[in-house]
Amino acid sequence: MSKTMSLLSALLCTFIWGTTFIAQETGMDEIGPFTFNSIRFFVGCFAIVPLAYIFEYKNFRSSFQVNKKLFLYLVTLIGLSLFLGSALQQVALIYTDVANAAFFTIFYVPMVPIIVFFLHKREIHWSVWPSVILCVIGGYLLTNFYDTTVRIGDGLVILGAFFWSTHIIFTGMIIKKYNYPLTIGAIQTFIVAILSLIIALMFEELILENILKEKIEILYAGVLSGGLAFVLQIYAQKNITPAPAAIIFSLEGVFATIAAWFLLNQILDINNVLGCIFILSGVLLSQLLPLVKNKKL
């Protein structure tokens, strides 16, 4: 039952992430990327804090006293990873389009098992590798670019994918030791909000009138993506190891494509449909094949 709930949490998280690509793109019409990210993650933090206080504060306070250094070390790692991944992705959307950003972000799928192997020398179930290949092919088919060159924005997204990878890995580590997804989610979003605000104050103009023009996009990206989705990710990874979790999260490209179809009236061609099928197949393989062999990923 706990594994099922984790899978459902991962899927809901991925749906929110996928649809948030549209809010991230349209939310920078009047404000800069770091201003957008700062307010977005502050909103997400404020949305989580009351729930963390009500449901986790008492138990967390006693657990925190046992090993403060370890918790602070791990939560700092996921906070920095989230900041760097989200910052690079947000800035990249200025220079590249949503399709390219969605595709190159999926590069965290092959990165995660490789990093896990080098960090922990942990055996990875063979089903991860064909699943990774299917997800990358599917991501390419979703993009609709054929003769494009890798631009500055695409390079930033690829670099960001590395930090999304480390965020998934470090999240898996911290939630195994501290089962407080709301508290961890609140802290990491606060770290990202503060760091983004510092850079926004240095390089961008914070104009209230312009910020209010983007309030719908900020609320969606803040409350749902910056807040709820990352809490769902933390909860999901309690029962799903990093490599298959990354494969499930690659479904954000599928959800982004479907959302663009509904919200922006973008037509789905045969390549888009095939891309969705490839990624869905990769996700299913990563989850079902280990059960056939009765092995743990």
Tally of individual domains: 1
What structural class results from the helix and strand content? mainly alpha
Task: Give the helix level as a range of percent.
Answer: over 70%
Q: What Rg, in angstroms, do the CA atoms define?
A: 18 Å
Shape: globular
Q: How far apart lie the N and C ends? A: 18 Å
Mean pLDDT: 82
Biggest sheet: strands, sense, closure? none
- Number of helical stretches of at least 4 residues: 14
Low confidence ranges:
none
Structure overview:
- The longest helix is centred in the N-terminal third of the chain and has 28 residues, at 68-95.
- With 297 residues, this protein is mainly alpha-helical.
- It has helices at residues 2-26, 33-55, 57-66, 68-95, 98-105, 108-120, 128-143, 152-177, 181-203, 208-213, 215-236, 242-249, 252-263, 270-293.
- The chain has one domain.
- It is built from 14 helices and no strands.
- The model has no long low-confidence stretch (mean pLDDT 82).
List keywords for this structure.
single chain, 297 residues, mainly alpha, 14 helices, globular
In short:
This protein is an all-alpha fold and 297 residues long. It is 82% helix and 0% strand.
SSE layout:
Elements (H helix, E strand, L loop, with lengths): L1 H25 L6 H23 L1 H10 L1 H28 L2 H8 L2 H13 L7 H16 L8 H26 L3 H23 L4 H6 L1 H22 L5 H8 L2 H12 L6 H24 L4
Helix pairs in contact: 1-11, 1-13, 2-9, 2-11, 4-8, 4-9, 5-7, 5-8, 6-8, 6-12, 7-14, 9-11
